[in-house]
Amino acid sequence: MAKPAPKAASKPAPKTAAKPAPKAASKPAAKPARGKSVESDEDFALRSLQMAHEDNKRFDASDEQLLHFYEQMLLIRRFEERAGQLYGLGLIGGFCHLYIGQEAVAVGLQSALTEGLDSVITGYRDHGHMLAYGIDPNVIMAELTGRQAGISKGKGGSMHMFSTEHRFYGGHGIVGAQVPLGGGLALAHKYREDGGLCLAYFGDGAANQGQVYETFNMAALWNLPIVFVIENNGYAMGTAVKRSSAETEFYRRGTAFRIPGMDVNGMDVLEVRAAAEIAFAHVREGKGPVLMELNTYRYRGHSMSDPGKYRTREEVQDQREHNDPIERIKKELAERGKTEDEIKAIDKAIRARVAEAADFAENSPEPDPAELYTDVLVESY
Amino acid sequence: MSAPETTNDAPVVTEDTRRLNMIEAINEALAIMLERDPDVIILGEDVGYFGGVFRATAGLQEKFGKTRVFDTPISECGIIGVAVGMGAYGLRPVPEIQFADYIYPGLDQLVSEAARLRYRSAGEFIAPMTVRSPFGGGIFGGQTHSQSPEALFTHVSGIKTVIPSTPHDAKGLLISAIEDNDPVIFFEPKRIYNGPFTGFYDKPVEPWKKHRDSQVPEGYYKIPLGKARTVREGEALTVLVYGTMVHVAEAVCEARGVDAEIIDLRTLVPLDIEAIETSVKKTGRCLIIHEATRTSGFGAELSALVTERCFYHLEAPVDRVTGFDTPYPHSLEWAYFPGPVRIGEAIDKIMSE
User: Fold this and answer.
1) Nearest residue of B to residue A150 by CA position?
2) Which intervals hold domain Transketolase-like pyrimidine-binding (chain B) (predicted)?
3) Tell me: the pLDDT tens digits for B237-296?
4) CA distances to A5, A17, A32, A372, B250 from A10, in Å
């Protein structure tokens, strides 16, 4: 392994030098008390979730659950690979941000949500989050190709997809702008007393937007049921976190607002799921927001036009070979007795499903020109 | 709930109808909507405990509780962003931005989220919200407490922009705005909160209570968005105005004895283009007045529309009296303000063509 970028190189035990490694037996309590000799109860509360996660790191999945996680992650992977091909063929235009490598994050977190109750909002790398919901790949792919049958009639495109049915609030193309909306969704959950929470995703790049901290403050001040999820894939477009962030341990960034943080390995769906259960339970108990940092890695460029000059091929290859979330679970399935043929059959079925979505997306008609003027303003009230 | 829910029209005003100033009318509209619709929520800086710097929300938290009317941190982007999320979920937030000059940190949320959510979700999600904000000058606020940024919003498709000029209209328009399913920017001309300023700044200000348009019916009524008001009819000249400038234009035309038809636009988007077109085709002359800076101001849009639609009826070029292309000054406020002298000169010029 040739010398990779510092932060990414150290994944998935990424921060060995900078902070106490969660993997070590010592608890994160080992972090310096910053001059305080006695730790207060509040300080303890800030890291109690992380401690709970350390104590119970991996979700104990049934065979059926494990298989389901595998299928979902594989669907995202194959879907995204196909989207990349369609982009290359000119069938998808504009911007297209692939989720390859990060599959365990959306699948692990969203599998712990209560469907139809909780809300989810994310940024522009949103295909995986929709697929993790079980939304029909046909209408997602057709949105990427800008067709009438797309989930937003082709008017949103790759970055702007929504589903009322699943309480999925998009799909937002402005970096970080979805975070205050997530605060509003959480406020609405609380106001309606419906017991739901909002899962608000953003990236390591968006974590440097001011509005994120406005939302942290309001969420903590009003004790909102929200889980902030920083998907730290190591790079804000082409800028490594160390080049853009004074505090690269993003899970600590809620501390000033008394928001407990969790540092989670986002390359293992079972660790993600286990952490999600702890975080969601905390929020559902009315204890206010949680900030989760999901350490992950994207194999492909930021978008399709990314020349990839900011990291080495070896670094990417190393992640693919040694840290792949799908291979990890595939191996576990084999250990639990799944035969090679059975696993191949799953792969084949998923390839067929994605091929069908691509055909559908390619052959669906484009929107009627009259659609240009619809859905701008609500006509009557 | 006293008025029938089905009507869109304001009840008939009689001599006995009580009189309110604009703040009282706005406060009443908010109270009525809080009462009628449990999804209506008021949030903003100082709006709860304190009741707002201009007192527009005074007493509302006391009456409706802290979950309906609450204070926010000084985080304009966050306030508007949170309101978009609340609206998308099905609530009907009414955020206050304390001065229009403070709205810029929230511009990203208004332009990229509030205005566009409906389009990019193909109608699945909407962001019903009414951003109330005092705007305009005439109070020596200097460049950060006097601006009129309405044209920034009329330029954004997906947002409605409403500007009342009287207590009567403020109440009915605000109720319409809150019930509207689109995001609405509701700019309140703060110079006329307490009385209809006529631009003659050296004369004492007449309080609203003596003005005919301060008669505000009780209970619920709506003034539809997109309907202009003819302030006075005339044959010689059409004057297009909104907000504070309605009263300045009226006073100037009165003082000079000009037979002008003054049209208060009330909402810039949607725009009552029919009323404008009918009037200009009748008079053949058109003067546009606004306080905002001139270049790319809303007057430029109005001028273009009038020229496109009424060109062969015009007796004179369309003219504009506006703020200058400078920051809003502190000490030279009355030089900047498009007051009676400049409006009078423009009228003379347009009538002499």
Assistant:
1) B122
2) 20-195
3) 999 999 999 999 999 999 999 999 999 999 999 999 999 999 999 999 999 999 999 999
4) 9, 9, 21, 48, 72
Instruction: Indicate the number of domains in chain B.
Output: 2
Count of CB atoms situated within 10 Å of the CB of B232: 15
Q: Which amino acid is at B192?
A: I
pLDDT tens column, B18-68 = 999 999 999 999 999 999 999 999 999 999 999 999 999 999 999 999 999
Choice among B28, B45, B76, B150 that is catalytic = B76
**Domain A47-362, classified CATH 3.40.50.970, yes or no:** yes
Q: If you search the block for the tokens 């595998």, which residue do you land on?
A: A70
Smallest Cβ–Cβ distance between A180 and the set B41, B81, B118 belongs to B81
Residues B271 and B327 placed together within one structural domain of the fold: yes
Across the interface, whether the CB atoms of B113 and A177 are under 8 A apart is answered yes
Sequence-separated (6 or more) residues with CB below 8 Å from residue B257 = none
- Cis amide linkage into residue B340, ω under 30° from 0: no
Contact flag B113-A171 (C-beta cutoff 8 Å)? no
Interface contact flag, A121 B85, Cβ < 8 Å: yes
pTM: 0.88
Residue B47's domain is classified under what CATH number? 3.40.50.970
Q: How far is A99 from chain B (nearest CA, A)?
A: 21
- Is B330 one of the annotated active-site residues of the chain? no
Check A177 against B81: CB less than 8 A apart.
yes
Q: How far is A379 from chain B (nearest CA, A)?
A: 9
Number of Cβ atoms within 10 Å of the Cβ of B173: 28
